[in-house]
Design a protein that fits this description.
The protein is mainly alpha-helical. The chain has helices spanning 3-17, 19-36, 41-54, 64-76, 97-126, and strands at residues 39-40, 80-82, 92-95. Helix 1 (3-17) packs across helix 5, helix 2 (19-36) packs across helix 4 (64-76) and helix 2 (19-36) packs across helix 5.
Length: 129
């Protein structure tokens, strides 16, 4: 198995293991780290909350505690790594190449699901009298 295949299968395992709340938090963390660069858990919560508000979703789709558990899992899986050695509260993270591959795969899965849901809704709408 080549390195790319290994990354994809590992990403599938993370996607399938945690449920919607954990997957949402993982994607929010990875997308934020990719877009805005390094950040601590506190920075990530603030930036993700700001992005949710801009998108018209004032309530995060995950609990703060979920974010901390997801950060641990993402670090363990090699999707993020510490950018500083500060204490737990001040530690910052960056996305790794593995994290970028996971994010791309996850975004494609969500895009596909969104298209199917939209198509199903459009079909149902067109059948209404």
């Amino acid at each position: 198995m080549n390195e790319s295949s290994h990354r994809i299968s590992a990403a599938h395992a993370l996607l399938d293991s945690g449920g919607f709340e954990a997957e949402t938090a993982a994607l929010a963390v990875l997308a934020n780290l990719k877009a805005e660069g390094r950040g601590s858990a506190r920075d990530l919560l603030r930036r993700i909350a700001r992005a949710a508000e801009i998108a018209g979703e004032p309530v995060l789709p995950f609990k703060h505690a979920t974010l901390y558990a997801v950060l641990h899992e993402l670090e363990f899986d090699g999707a993020i790594q510490p950018a500083s050695d500060g204490d737990r509260a001040g530690r910052t993270f960056v996305i790794t190449p593995r994290g970028k591959a996971f994010l791309a795969l996850a975004q494609e899965r969500w895009r596909s699901a969104h298209l199917v849901i939209r198509a199903a809704a459009a079909a149902a709408e067109s059948q209404r009298p």
